[in-house]
Amino acid sequence: MSTPAVFGQGSLSRAAALVHTLVTVEVLLLVAASPGLAALVLVAPDPANLPLAAVCLLPLGPATAAALYALHHRDRDLTDLHPARAYWRGWRLNAVPALKLWAPLLAWLTVIAFTLTHFPATGLPGWWAVLLAAVGVGSLLWGAHALVLTALFAFRARDTARLAAYFLVRHGRATLGAGSLLVLTAAGTAVLTEALPALLAAPLLLSLLHSSRPVIAQTQEDFTA
What we know:
Structural class: mainly alpha
Radius of gyration: 19 Å
Order of helices and strands: HHHHHHHHHHH
Number of helices: 11
Oligomer: single chain
């Protein structure tokens, strides 16, 4: 005798639960980051405004960490969905820890971007620009690992920073996955619209969690009690 299907546990129900969670997390992420994003729209696209743009992006770090937390702890059962509750719990837990890493990362990326946009004035050889761009990409990939670790584990900021740097090299496939998402987002933004990262933030973060499974598994096994 086969076990009868229970409502809320079939394939269609799981798909509906995923869509509901993604839409809810997407909306809440935009709400949490809206003060900075709204101000960012008013900032003129001028290299001199890069520091101001970085300030506008500060709320995005905690909002992203909360989204990662909610997606990681999402329910698969359509009859027991609480994505909004999980999101705000993730925001309360991770807002300050995320800012401790997100703010320095934004400051560092701002320095790199400002230098590249004013590179002719530096008098440096051209290969320095390539090196700076590579450092910037590496910093973004480190930030992806750091946000995942911050969202899912309660480490000190300096320990999270060290683990993110360690996993950047230790789990090349996870880093490559994060890099692929970065390239895909940049290409979509250039071809379609600058709003694409905001509109597809939840699916992109779910993909980041999927590619970060080796990082999450080793952290749970080797670095938690």
